[in-house]
Design goal:
Layout: H1 8-12, E1 27-31, E2 33-38, H2 43-47, E3 54-58, E4 61-64, E5 74-77, E6 80-82, H3 88-95, H4 97-101, E7 109-115, H5 121-142, E8 146-158, E9 161-164, E10 172-173, E11 175-178, E12 182-185, E13 191-192, H6 196-209, E14 212-213, E15 221-222, E16 225-236, E17 244-254, H7 261-264, H8 269-292, H9 306-310, E18 320-327, H10 334-347, E19 351-355, E20 358-360, H11 362-381, H12 388-434, H13 444-456, H14 460-494, H15 500-529, H16 537-575, H17 581-588, H18 600-605, H19 615-623, H20 636-640, H21 647-651, H22 664-668, H23 673-724, H24 728-733, H25 739-757, H26 761-770, H27 778-798, H28 814-830, H29 832-835, H30 838-847, H31 857-864, H32 872-886, H33 916-922
Parallel strand pairs: 2-6, 2-18, 7-17, 7-18
Antiparallel strand pairs: 1-19, 3-4, 4-5, 8-9, 8-13, 8-16, 9-10, 11-12, 14-15, 16-17, 17-20
Helix pairs in contact: 3-5, 13-23, 14-15, 14-16, 14-23, 15-16, 16-23, 17-23, 23-27, 25-27, 26-32, 28-31
The protein binds adenosine-5'-triphosphate (ATP).
Adenosine-5'-triphosphate binds next to α5 and β15.
């Protein structure tokens, strides 16, 4: 019996290096296992008093005991020698088992018994077969990982004919040579073994079908060679995916016994049988001897008998072979026994080349290919050359990542909310500390934060630099104004008409000019006298406060000059005689021809500067030749040396001062004096107008400077305040906001403050239309916002103040501002008919829901304008209507933003809008 768990495979490792399915085919040379079994003396032999001629001194040696002491004993050594006492099981286990079970691992195996007739071949092979079958099924039972298919076929070679023992009716079978499978028996039945009993049953059939005959030596002498072939195919279970199988055959061969006719007394059929037996056995012996000769040199006569043809693979081929030589110990059979042992001795030298036989079954191959096709199709359908399980694992991994990210986002949101909450708490605490009434109810905290944002982001030294730049520009403006006034003075002085009022005007202008020169000098001294130092910021602020009056003074002087010019023009107009002369003189005389009234350089260069590029200069050169001995008061050098062009010099004799237009001949000719006077008057008029325009521009520029300066002052104040209370909260507020967002927010706040402070809707309109969010608008919005914020606070403290018509009075009542606003609306209502067409009016009435046929529809319309500060569409449409009514759009001229302050005044009200001087006063600057 096969002892489990020792499998045949494990046993085989000792003899064959590779027995693992799928491990590849490995070939190992192996000698035929040759053992000798000595049976006991038979009854027949014992009856004849036959002698035992053989001895088994050990398991490997058989020794011939020569009764004739004169001859030496002959010994034979084999792989195993079984004495008569040995059981068939021992013979199986030690002489056949390993070879037999090799078939379970894909190695062909052949076990056959060779010996004289009646030596015990059939007896031994029955036992070997039975044990092998038992072990095979035991192995199958213990090897569940593999599926086994066992088939059985059986044949006999009788008289050199192949007969199917499982189907004797098939007659004599042919042997075919297959290129791959070798010699095959045509039409040999191969039964699939269901179980061990089935196999036993089939084997029993074979024995029953075998030719047996009685001889003198054996009552049941086998008269044929019998081959029972067990084919074992085994493979791993299907789920493993392995398609290869072990396929091997186990040949259990019971040869017919060699015999001597003289011994067997065979005749007739037995003799014939014996002849065939002996012939085939002779071939077998020849083959063995050939094979045992080494190197397989020479011809091996396999084909000389069907037995050797069929057993060819087992004889020096792809099989493990075990030969059990059976023998009788009787002295009477010693010659036959010697032949057997001689055969056995030869067989020991035969080397086989057994290898594991692997096959791929068609069925398994088809299944395997089908699965492979399905797998490939699935891969083709999938986006990546990955298996579904891999994709699934990827999906799981991504889901985990998403969940992780969601958790992180949730945590970040929580932290953000917490930070915002803390920030709000700190803001609230700060607001409570500073007092909630400081900035009123209109979102001043946010506004403060926004303003501080721009302030705190500015370096103090930068602010000082900006202030200095403004002062420098202011000083330059003052100098330009002085030069303009000097030129004007010379012009006027050179055309003195003897008018007392004019003389007084000129005198006043001279005084103003002197004052302005002082202002200019003062500003210059400041700039030159101090060093820019961020550390002295507070001193800068103090100095700026003192300069505020300087700027105001400069503006007042300019206003005075303006009035003087107006008076001068008025006086000149009264003396004009010839209305058409202006046209003529314009062409001939244009001493102050200004190609651009805003350009001070043109004023300085006119009229005789070589740098002048106007065509008038060419005309002057032709028609207004300068006398060689004349004093050219209006030459360019007069501007470069202003001290030489004094008013006294130009007007001391009451006549017109000789100019480049006046020839010596004309000066002496009194006939032309009147004409020249008119000409000069007209020229003066033109020049004065030019100067006036220039002065107006100067005022505008000063206003702009004041705007900028005031903003800087405010920023400095903020900065100063922030120095003492810089907190973490403010640091967070310093993060810059996009300008467009700041603009939108500030404009909304401004609109609300306009509404709360009852600011002029004309002012609102102009501001709204003028500042639409350009980067340069920032300064105006911040100033406006700061101004309104202060006003709102201030009015709240006063309780009844209104900025609408404050003018120079800082504490007007709210009722008066509302009244002023009402007057403004009444003024605008009167302009509805003149500024809007009938269709426009009707459309507006419908749109603004003014009932038809009602009284004062125009006033109803205007009263609805600028009344909803939270509705930006309302604000926009209100501004558009007011702009039409005021005429902002019809003048055709571009209203510069720098002139905005000048236009703050109500067109119907000559009162000056409260300027920055007032703001400065209110801020205690
Ligand atoms: N080892 C043995 N122990 C006991 N009896 C044996 C043994 N071997 C053989 N016999 C007996 O010897 C007789 C002949 O045996 P067997 O038929 O097996 O010889 P054989 O070699 O097959 O003869 P043949 O070639 O004529 O068929 C049988 O009666 C058998 O029972």
């Amino acid at each position: 019996m096969v002892g489990t768990p020792v499998t045949p495979a494990s046993k085989m490792i000792q003899r064959t290096p590779s027995t693992t399915p799928g491990g590849g085919t490995r070939v190992r040379e192996e000698k035929i296992l040759v053992t000798v079994r000595v049976r006991p003396l038979s009854r027949r032999e014992q009856a004849l008093y036959d002698l035992i001629a053989w001895d088994c001194p050990d398991d490997h040696t058989i020794l011939f005991k020569n009764p004739n002491q004169e001859r030496p004993a002959t010994s034979y050594k084999f792989d195993k020698v079984f004495d008569p006492s040995c059981s068939t099981l021992k013979v199986y286990e030690e002489g056949a088992k390993n070879v037999a079970l090799s078939a379970l691992t894909g190695i062909n195996a052949t076990i056959f018994a060779y010996g004289q007739t009646s030596s015990g071949k059939t007896y031994t092979m029955r036992g070997i077969t039975e044990n092998a079958v038992t072990d095979i099924f035991e192995h199958i039972k213990n090897t569940q990982e593999r599926a086994f298919v066992l088939k059985v076929s059986a044949l006999e070679i009788y008289n050199e004919s192949v007969i199917d023992l499982l189907n004797r009716e098939s007659g004599h079978l042919r042997l075919l040579d297959d290129p791959e499978r070798g010699v095959i028996v045509e039409k040999l039945v191969e039964e699939v073994v269901k179980d061990i009993n089935h196999l036993r049953h089939l084997i029993g059939i074979c024995e029953a079908q075998r030719q047996v005959g009685e001889t003198s030596l054996n009552d049941k002498s086998s008269r044929s060679h019998q081959i029972i072939r067990l084919t074992v195919e085994s493979s791993l279970r299907e789920k493993s995916g392995c398609v290869k199988s072990f396929l091997a055959s186990l040949n259990l061969v019971d040869l017919a016994g060699s015999e001597r006719a003289s011994q067997t007394n065979a005749d007739g059929a037995r003799f014939k049988e014996g002849s065939h037996i002996n012939r085939s056995l002779l071939t077998l012996t020849t083959v063995i001897r050939k094979l045992s000769g080494g190197k397989r040199s020479g011809h091996v006569p396999y084909r000389d008998s069907k037995l050797t043809r069929i057993l060819q693979p087992s004889l020096g081929g792809n099989a493990r072979t075990a030969i059990i030589c059976t023998m009788s110990p009787a002295l009477s059979h010693v010659e036959q026994t010697r032949n057997t042992l001689s055969f056995a001795t030869s067989a020991k030298e035969v080397t086989n080349n057994a290898q594991i036989n692997m096959v791929v079954s068609d069925k398994k191959l088809v299944k395997h290919l089908q699965k492979e096709v399905e797998r490939l199709e699935a891969e083709l359908r999938s986006p990546e050359p990955s298996s579904a399980s891999y994709l699934q694992s990827l999906l799981i991994e991504k889901n985990l990542q998403i969940e992780q990210m969601e958790r992180e986002m949730k945590e970040l949101k929580r932290q953000r909310d917490h930070a915002q909450s803390q920030l709000e708490q700190e803001k609230t605490a700060r607001k409570e500390q500073k007092g909630t009434n400081q900035y009123g109810p209109s979102g001043q905290v946010a506004r403060q934060s926004m303003v501080r944002q721009s302030v705190t982001s500015t370096d103090p030294s930068m602010l000082v630099q900006e202030i200095r730049k403004l002062e420098q520009r202011q000083r330059q403006l003052g100098e330009e104004a002085n030069r303009a006034l000097e030129i004007l003075h010379k012009d006027v002085a050179s055309h003195t008409l003897g008018n007392q009022a004019t003389a007084e005007t000129i005198a006043k202008m001279l005084s103003d000019i002197k004052d302005m020169q002082e202002v200019s000098t003062f500003a210059g001294e400041i700039v030159n006298g101090e060093k820019v130092n961020a550390a002295s910021l507070k001193e800068e602020i103090t100095r700026l406060n003192s300069h505020e009056s300087t700027i105001a003074s400069l503006e007042r002087k300019l206003d005075n000059v303006q009035k003087s010019i107006d008076m001068l023009v008025s006086s000149l107009a009264t003396t004009e005689d010839t209305p058409n002369y202006k046209v003529q003189s314009k062409k001939k005389i244009f001493p102050f021809a200004l190609s651009n009234s805003s350009s001070m350089q043109n004023i300085i260069r006119s009229p005789c500067s070589p740098l002048t590029s106007s065509g008038g200069v060419v005309d002057n050169e032709i028609e207004n030749r300068v006398p060689e001995n004349s004093n050219a008061l209006f030459c360019s050098n007069s501007l470069s040396r202003p001290s030489e062009t004094t008013p006294l010099k130009s007007g001391k004799n009451g006549n017109s001062t000789p100019s480049r237009e006046v020839t010596p001949a004309s000066a002496s000719n009194s006939v032309n004096v009147k004409k020249m006077q008119r000409m000069f008057k007209n020229a003066a008029e033109e020049n004065i107008r030019s100067i006036r325009a220039y002065v107006t521009e100067l005022k505008e520029r000063v206003a702009k400077l004041q705007y900028q300066k005031q903003l800087l002052v405010c920023q400095v104040l903020e900065l100063e305040a922030n120095e003492a209370e810089t907190t973490e909260t403010e640091t967070m507020d310093q993060s810059p906001m996009p300008w467009h967002l700041v603009f939108d927010d500030q404009r909304k706040q401004i609109i609300m403050l306009w509404h709360l402070c009852h600011v002029s809707i004309i002012h609102r309109t102009q501001f709204y239309l003028l500042f639409r969010g350009e980067p340069g608008d920032q300064i105006y919005l911040e100033v406006e916002l700061r101004r309104l914020t202060w006003l709102e606070q201030h009015l709240a403290e006063l309780g009844n103040a209104s900025p609408a018509l404050l003018g120079d009075e800082p504490a007007s009542s709210v009722s008066s501002s509302i009244k002023a606003l009402r007057q403004e609306r009444e003024y605008l209502a009167k302009r509805v008919n003149s500024k809007l067409t009938v269709d426009e009016r009707e459309m507006l009435y419908v749109k603004w829901e003014i009932p038809p046929g009602g009284k004062q529809r125009r006033l109803q319309l205007v009263n609805k304008l600028w009344t909803d500060p939270l509705n930006m569409q309302h604000v926009k449409e209100s501004a558009e209507i007011v702009a039409k009514l005021v005429g902002f759009c019809e003048s055709g001229e571009h209203v510069s933003k720098e002139m905005f302050e000048l236009n703050f005044a109500n067109p119907c009200d000559k009162k000056t809008w409260m300027g920055w001087n007032l703001i400065s006063n209110l801020l205690n600057l």
